[in-house]
Amino acid sequence: MAGVISTLPVRAPASAGRRATAESPLIKWLLIGVTLAFFGLFLVLPLIVVFQEAFAGGIEAYFAAFDDPATRHAIWLTLLTAAIAVPVNTIFGLAAAWAITRFDFRGKSLLTSLIDLPLWVSPVIGGLIYVLLYGRNGWLGPWLIENDIRIIFALPGIVLATVFVTFPFVARGLIPLMQAQGRAEEEAAATLGANGWQIFLRITLPKIKWGLLYGVILCNARAMGEFGAVSVVSGHIRGQTNTMPLHIEILYNEYQFVAAFAIASLLSLLALLTLVLKSIAEWRAEQQIREGARILETTTTTVP
Amino acid sequence: MSIEIRTVSKLFGKFPAVRQVSLAIETGELVALLGPSGSGKTTLLRIIAGLEFADEGEVFFAGEDVTWSSAYHRKAGFVFQHYALFNHLTIYENIAFGLRVRPRALRPPEHEVSERVHTLLEAVQLGGHEKRLPSQLSGGQRQRIAFARALAIEPRVLLLDEPFGALDAKVRKELRRWLREFHESTRLTTLFVTHDQDEAFEVADRVVIIDRGTIQQVGTPDEVRSAPANPFVADFLDCELATH
Questions:
Q1: From the list B50, B76, B86, which residue is nearest A203 (CB)?
Q2: Distance from B244 to chain A by nearest Cα, in Å?
Q3: What is the ipTM of this complex?
Q4: Which residues pair with A164 in a beta bridge?
């Protein structure tokens, strides 16, 4: 088939190129060694330390750490925050990716770069923005106090700060995927009488599902692990506004090392799980991009 | 069903893709829009399908003003140059798509869907391929599936955007003949875009020659070839400008 033939010339220069840039074995092993040393020192070793410290007092002490009501509340608050922030950012990310890849409008490139804003800004600044807006002395502070609405030092503030910090992930995952896939299939669906919602559910969503999942996983990992932004708006009220990362800090400062590392191990396990899910989703998303590119390629290279 | 467009214009940014174009296509005609690339022919076809909206002018389907109705209301069968098949769906589901997205009251029962899909697959000579995915078919087969998919909704008109442009010369000739025969038997009003004059002259009842967003000449293949209206047409068709 045409597809098989057309992929051959793409592969050939790749293997020729590898030979041309091949380095001596010494440099090769030196580079691999440096990479592994860094990897061990900065990633694996800390992870081992977390688990070692968590189990330093034995397995009973480990589980006793989770018996504390303040700890349980911190876990619950983290889950609740993620349960609100992740769906909100999934919807926002889908809407933003759709708008950016499917429509042409003024200010599109500005919007595209603004989506990345939370990645450039320090999370602490992100949290501070909300204090300046909704805090006691903030722009909307007096009005909020009058109406007895608490945002800062309460759940709404924590959710807002988390949403701010995590909003680029879904959109950033989807935009390149949707750009690679183009709009042709959606246009075809429209001419066949599908309305916007049917096009989204039957055509767009199945094509982007792995990319979407990838973004959601990253968003969730960051939402549960966020420290800086949440720290500014939370007020650190034990058993009320402490999320897991904040609670770990407090326990650590109180010299409760086993408890601190036990909760840290929970977050680490979550990170490891995220890593596995992320790899699977990433791999499937790449397949979807390649599939799209391959079909485009076979259709364009068969022109005589 | 007849198609009429009146003084249609379309700008892309500052670039005028279509300028003041008026054209009438009678019921049962097969008309080719012929022009070099960038001449605005595809834009014009997309405006007729409802995939783009004109900045000025009107579009009529059977005398009814459809200028502002969406692609989804117009029921024009559209075939894309690069097929635009749904790559995650089987051939069967690709063809059945237009029936499945109908409002519940108008949706045919499954046995009718199945019957329609099989009839169409036979019509495009691809019976037995219903369980395959588009990626398992050759270019020519994919384009025939795209035809079958567009025909499944029983469109009132058929709009083809360079339907054979991505295929090799042999397949192109076969499909050209197939299209002409299909048109003879159904008399479905058909408008197709091409930059290949042989294709336009062989298949079409009438040819519309477009350049830089405006119509240069409209006529039967013989008329256009024997009496090019202006130097552009003569040059484009590579024939002598008639001297009066």
A1: B86
A2: 40
A3: 0.89
A4: none
